[in-house]
DNA sequence: CAGTGGTCTAGACCACCCC
DNA sequence: GGGTGGTCTAGACCACTGA
């Protein structure tokens, strides 16, 4: 579930503030701090962990940005209601991945190069050629999403070197999204999303066990790395009877 | 466009880090830092503004979390591609509001109380009674969104005291969302969203100039304050030919 | 090697809240 | 008035980058 929270990116020594925020996360989800019961103060944690107050503040920063707690000057730090009990999908790519890991990948068309000027343009490519793959995601033996994945040819060629990506058919617990960093050497930093509704065409209806004309949820995602380089464009069609997109929106950036 | 960025919540003295981050935002959007040209280092800004390095770091924190820049240890700080030229909708409630301010509100049903056990439950109310209003959003004289707004009775009664909310018909540049904090005394901290696609029923089709059975985008938003108290539930139906929901997703929380 | 950002310390002053 | 979180300082050490 949790990926690499104690800010110690797999291998590095854990940071002091990561240790503190992780301890507080555990206590929060264990229900140690009911409503109106403040968390320990900065001073208390500072003494308890033998660190400076600034380090404790750094730990609280993370908890606030995750929406787990809120802080009131003069009063204290409090757990956000429901944060202990319910799932908090904040709409990050990590969330997408952890959901996808419970599903299976059904490759309909392995990676191949095609000439698609419009797609190439959206990927910021000079040439018309893009690498494309078509696949479905399966949950409980039922397909709920049809995806066309488009990639820069450079990335596409490396994807094609992966045996599973050349093999049509079912690949349990596999996600293309986590292959991108592996083959490109670039970590995904975010994605621009465009969400709309359309009517299912023949292809979509067939792939998702629906009928032509049924409403489907369409989500386009344009992935980029931290420098803004475009890594992939995925066009997803969801069967709304089997999937709803849920996430949490914050008040401001 | 920008709301209250220089962390000086309307009236308070501007903070040092807010001044610095705001200056950098202006320079970034003016294109002062092309790709591969690093922003000033922490040391440079620290000397230039006569502040400590930690204060400069605090300024950079905001820019990073907004996705405007990324930082590489040992190399420097760089502008994210496209961040100067394109709109960055990060999917916050502030973004929702600034978009809605360019549209008009058409009230179909003023606030009134109804018994809706399911809605009341979603709002976490003990009683069955909720306050409800129905309205459309209009852009370029064309309705693109039909909304059922549901509120706790306490908030609904105060909403009903506002003259515009009692008057059916067109109210230019008005948003219900910004009334909520005014009448409830509670700032909206976030919302849980559920997005799906449905077929238009008679009501939705009539309100959005569509036909029965047309695909529509449905977005449910459950708003809460920082303490997790539920403030409103809005059920929105969008005409997909006139609206697509766009926002940016980050890699992790 | 000098320079970068990442972490951390041990102080300080302030506005605000609650008693 | 004592305690809270918000801001800020002036140092320090580290891992990592690039020339």
Structural write-up:
The structure is a homodimer of 253-residue chains. Chain A has helices spanning 16-29, 42-48, 53-65, 93-100, 117-122, 153-160, 163-166, 179-184, 202-207; strands at 69-72, 76-79, 104-115, 129-139, 142-151, 169-171, 188-199, 215-225, 230-238, 245-250. In chain A, helix 1 packs across helix 3 (53-65). The first copy, chain A, is built from 9 helices and 10 strands. In chain A, 28% of the residues lie in helices and 32% in strands. The model of chain A has no long low-confidence stretch (mean pLDDT 90). A 7-stranded antiparallel beta sheet of chain A has the order 6-3-4-5-9-8-7. In chain A, strands 1-2 form a two-stranded antiparallel ribbon. By secondary structure, chain A is α+β, with helices and mostly antiparallel strands. The first copy, chain A, folds into 2 domains: 16-79, Orthogonal Bundle (Arc Repressor Mutant, subunit A); 89-246, Chorismate lyase (3-Layer(aba) Sandwich). Chains A and B meet through helix 4, strand 7, strand 8 and strand 10 of A and helix 4, strand 7, strand 8 and strand 10 of B. The structure holds a DNA duplex (19 and 19 nucleotides).
């Amino acid at each position: 579930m949790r990926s690499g929270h104690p800010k110690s990116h797999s291998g590095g020594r854990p940071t002091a503030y990561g240790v503190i925020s992780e301890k507080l996360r555990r206590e929060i989800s264990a229900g140690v701090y009911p409503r109106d019961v403040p968390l320990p103060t900065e001073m208390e944690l500072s003494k308890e962990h033998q660190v400076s107050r600034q380090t404790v503040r750094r730990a609280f920063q993370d908890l606030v940005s995750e929406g787990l707690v809120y802080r009131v000057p003069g009063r204290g730090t409090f757990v956000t209601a429901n944060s202990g009990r319910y799932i908090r999908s904040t709409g990050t790519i990590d969330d997408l991945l952890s959901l996808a890991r419970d599903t299976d990948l059904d490759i309909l068309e392995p990676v191949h190069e095609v000439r698609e000027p419009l797609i190439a343009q959206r990927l910021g490519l000079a040439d018309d050629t893009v690498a494309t793959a078509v696949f479905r995601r399966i949950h409980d033996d039922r397909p709920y999403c049809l995806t066309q994945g488009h990639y820069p040819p450079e990335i596409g060629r490396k994807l094609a070197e992966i045996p599973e990506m050349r093999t049509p058919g079912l690949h349990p617990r596999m996600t293309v999204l986590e292959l991108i960093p592996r083959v490109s050497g670039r970590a995904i930093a975010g994605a621009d999303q465009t969400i709309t509704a359309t009517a299912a065409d023949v292809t979509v209806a067939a792939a998702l066990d629906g009928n032509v004309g049924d409403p489907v949820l369409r989500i386009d995602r344009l992935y980029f790395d931290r420098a803004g380089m475009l890594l992939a464009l995925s066009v997803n069609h969801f069967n709304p009877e089997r999937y709803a997109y849920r996430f949490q929106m914050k008040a401001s950036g």
